[in-house]
Amino acid sequence: MTRLLTLLLLFISISISAQLQSPSDFLGYEIGTQFSRHADVVRYFEHVTANSTMVTYQTYGKTNERRPLTYAVVSTEQNLANIETIRTDNLKNIGMLAGSASPTTTIVWLSYNVHGNEASSTEAAMQTLYTLITEKKDWLQNTVVIIDPCVNPDGRDRYANWYNQVKATPYNTAQDATEHNEPWPGGRPNHYLFDLNRDWAWATQVESRQRLKIYNQWMPHVHVDFHEQGINEPYYFAPAAEPYHEVISPWQREFQTQIGKNHARYFDKEGWLFFTRERFDLLYPSYGDTYPTFMGAIGMTYEQAGHGMAGLGIETDEGYVLTLVDRVAHHTTTGLSTVEIASQNAAKLNTEFKKFFNNSDLRYKSYVLKGNPDKIQSLTDLLDQHEIQYGFASGGTVSGFSYSKNEKGNMDANGALVVSTNQPKGKMVKVLFEPDAALSDPLTYDITAWSVPHAYGLETIASTTLVSATGNAPTSNALNTPAPSSAGYIAKWNSLQDASFLSELLQEGIRVRFTGKDVRFAGTAFDKGSLIITRSDNRMHQDFDTKVTEIANTHKRALFASPTSFGDTNTDFGSPDVKLVNKQRVAVLKGNGTSSLSYGTLWHFFEQQLKYPITSIDTEDFPRIDLRKYDVLILPEGWYGRVFNEGVMDDLKDWVRDGGKVIAMGRAVSVFEGKDGFDLKSNASEAEKEDTVKGNLIPYDQRERESVKDFITGSIYRITVDGSHPMAYGYGDTYFSLKQGNESYQFLENGYNVGYIEGDAVSVSGFSGADAKAGLKNSLVFGEARMGQGSIIYLVDDVLFRSFWENGKLFLVNAVFFVNNNAFSL
After folding, report:
1. Tell me, which fold does domain 586-817 have in CATH?
2. What confidence score (pLDDT) does residue 709 get?
3. Alpha helix locations (H) across 191-281?
4. Nearest to 668 by CA among 557, 800, 554
5. Are 652 and 662 in contact (CB under 8 A)?
6. What is the pTM of this model?
7. Structure confidence by residue, pLDDT tens digits, 218-227
């Protein structure tokens, strides 16, 4: 009977294998000769799952455009039968689940196509899957391979569909051909035009949030993020470039080299060029290589020549034709090579993985944070995404490094949020919360500062001793009831949640005022910017009390029902300093000349966070737009020289003089520099003036290294804030701003300098070149220039950068609704 059963199982296995098709056979074209649509990729993975006992395939979420996010688990039939034990033993090994285990199976995660127009990798994912289960089964005896064939389906289909529409037949290899020049915004980002490869830590996007849930369930030992770079650069693989973050272990460094040498063996055999250790560092924590690395894995980026420019084939500057077939072959080779060497080192990977989660040698044991409850809640939401443990202090004073003072200080810890490093993910806690990341080399691929306490605007102490967190979490009892006998309702103004509350009120037709003075009613004090919702303004709203309290309860906002409109101070409800908030008609520029990433952040912010409608206008259509239909025009970061020609600029000035409001973000500010009437002049540093005189005598091979003196690579600076100006309502007199560059402007002569650096610039985190930092002396950061009845608002530092700098977002909301709000528009 046993022999009969064995023969039956063998027959079934042979029968299933006979039905399994290669990607080329299934799709009807050789892999690499077409760009596959996402739906076809999903169909192929479903086909393999239906015809192989070595693959399971699941959906872990959906994109904004409703495409499935999927992953396959690939291993031997025996391992898949025992897969839950393999998964949980791995978590037990590092303390993320209770119990003990000594696993010997290694877990490798291969992530493809996070950038939609780096499209060769999804094709390679199909080929890699097929090769693993048909030719490389032996490697899977002690290895589980997780394959996410497309991290960014919306971006990939944007690229693939465009390319398939415009390509010549046969494809044209000339670089000037249409098929090698994508239109704005390109296929790189997701639906909201975010770069998902910079969203791992901040998890602002649905793709990231859903992926992290699965990642935390598996915690792989090796993670590879497949990319593409310029057409003239062959192939990059590990080991990575300096700087390495200091939490990275010697083993992680060493194994990257082992993997690189294994790849080199295959590439040398085929005569394929590659490079290592020169470009892509391991510092900024939100990449697909660094985030897994700080979670204990061997995290790596592989970069194939091509990108969105390459199409099916392109002639490089070196005179050879780079084809999609080539690109797929290279990515398939490194993917398989990674699985091979992981399998050869499965036991060692498990041993070293466990060691990484020993956090006893970390200097700071606890980070203690206090501040606005909404900001604390936003931070704990982020920690929950990463399954990082936290608690709340029950009392006492805590001493250590003070983030606000940038030196030793202390704080009353009662009720404070406590995030400690004595937990499995302690090293990630250090990376996210550390005051200033150690930097072995200033030449980095991204920003060098991201400290979460500054990003969320929280008073923080980093303590070298473990702080007890046995207290209860603060609770919000903002359950309001209608008060029909009141003169109106008052709500505080401190956070983005307050802004979302205002947004819904306005859209429900409720008239809202804000106070330009500190006020007190019936013994209760309210700061500038507080919302005042009067019965007088809303006499015609039949369900006024019910609706206001309902909206407030939805947003968990505490309302003060004032029994009188007569103020305890000299300010009453009807004061000229208590102004109606306009239901602003907001336009945002997009298209050529704008940064797609900056526009996407604005789009996502208004649509998904503030939930307030905007009208997006393409830059090509802008000259024909009647601006009188809008109250506010927002310019994302961009390069507007071609957009704002003389005629357009004159029209813009006329609109502003009539009461319009322009908000310029980041580099968009420069379009107004030196222009008549805009009150904006740049600061030219002494070093720039001197270089102009003497010329550049720096030797050729020292230019890049010498140039760092002019760089600011994402550094955090302390700036002074004029809290009496409407743009700064909800802030104190100090703000920590993330600077991405060395742009420096003089103080406005006639306008309002709302946020500025007075005297020498003070950076608290991240790298700043000496000359760049010196050039920030006495410089504008946030300001308002008046022109007629309207305003131009300068946000020199982008307060929405990647949507993770939470503490900056209220500046933008204030600029839209409060600044220069002198007349109510019906």
Report:
1. Rossmann fold (3.40.50)
2. 83
3. 206-218, 250-270
4. 800
5. yes
6. 0.94
7. 999 999 999 9
Nearest by Cα to 727 from 796, 817, 823:
817
Return all residues near 447 (Cβ < 8 A) that are at least 6 apart.
Answer: 284, 713, 714, 715, 738, 740, 766
Going by pLDDT thresholds of 50, 70 and 90, the confidence category of residue 7 is: very low
Provide the total of helices (H) and of strands (E) in the chain, helices listed first: 24, 34
Q: Which CATH number fits domain 2-356: 3.20.20.70, 3.40.630.10, 3.30.930.10, 2.40.30.10?
A: 3.40.630.10
Q: Which of 62, 66, 84, 63 is nearest to 75 (CA)?
A: 84
Question: Residue 460 carries which side chain, given as an amino acid letter?
Answer: T
Any alpha helices (H) in 234-372, and if so which ranges?
Answer: 250-270, 290-294, 307-310, 324-344, 346-356
The band of 659, judged by pLDDT with boundaries at 50, 70 and 90, is very high
| Number of residues assigned to the chain | 826
Q: Say what the alpha-carbon torsion angle 391, 396, 398, 399 is, to the nearest 10 degrees.
A: -170
Phi, then psi, of 633 in degrees rounded to 5: -125, 120
Type of residue numbered 682: S
Contacts of 542 (CB under 8 A, 6+ apart): none
Q: How far apart are CA 86 and CA 88, in angstroms?
A: 6
Whether the bond between 170 and the residue before it is cis, its omega within 30 degrees of 0, is yes
Mean pLDDT of 778-796: 98
| Strand, coil or helix: 240 | coil
Q: Distance (Å, rounded) from C-alpha 107 to C-alpha 84?
A: 13
Q: Name the amino acid, one letter, at 729.
A: Y
Tokens of 752: 């309002």
Query: Do 273 and 263 form a contact (C-beta atoms < 8 A)?
Result: no
Q: Helix, strand, coil proportions of the chain in percent (round to 5)?
A: 35, 20, 45
Residue carrying the six token digits 């799709």 = 27
Any idea where the domains of the chain sit in the sequence? 2-356, 366-463, 488-580, 586-817
> Residue 122 is which amino acid?
T
DSSP 8-class letter at 148: E
